[in-house]
């Protein structure tokens, strides 16, 4: 498939907007080149929202921790190369698993 044929095929795809009709290819390499160079941006509806993720509306909870305790936790976190928040969450998860598996 020549470059001009690729452009004609791409224009045909753009006309169909929501339905992609691929042209006939003479070889695997032609098909690979066609799909590798296809820009589907013009086929997407512009509803003003490119991506939408359904996520739980949950927020982190703040917990008061005594100054001496948090200093100690921060030292452990620094030694492990993680943030204080990460270490606290890991420890809490580990503890909850231990409690759940205890008789």
List keywords for this structure.
4 helices, 103 residues, mainly alpha, 2 domains, single chain, elongated
How many separate helices? 4
Compute the separation of the termini in Å: 70 Å
The biggest sheet, with number of strands, parallel, antiparallel or mixed sense and barrel status, is: none
Tell me, briefly, the overall form.
elongated
Give a quick summary of the entry:
With 103 residues, the protein is mostly helical.
Write up what this structure looks like.
- This protein is mainly α and 103 residues long.
- The protein folds into 2 domains: 3-43, no CATH class; 67-101, no CATH class.
- Helices cover 53% and strands 0% of the residues.
- The longest helix has 18 residues, at 84-101.
């Amino acid at each position: 498939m020549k470059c001009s044929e690729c452009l004609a095929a791409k224009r045909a795809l753009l006309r169909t907007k929501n339905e992609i009709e691929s042209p006939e290819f003479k070889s695997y390499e032609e098909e690979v080149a066609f799909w590798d160079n296809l820009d589907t941006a013009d086929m997407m509806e512009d509803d003003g929202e490119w991506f939408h993720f359904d996520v739980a509306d949950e927020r982190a909870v703040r917990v008061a921790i005594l100054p001496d305790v948090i200093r100690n936790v921060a030292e452990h976190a620094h030694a492990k190369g993680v943030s204080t928040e990460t270490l606290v969450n890991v420890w809490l998860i580990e503890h909850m698993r231990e409690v759940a598996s205890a008789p």
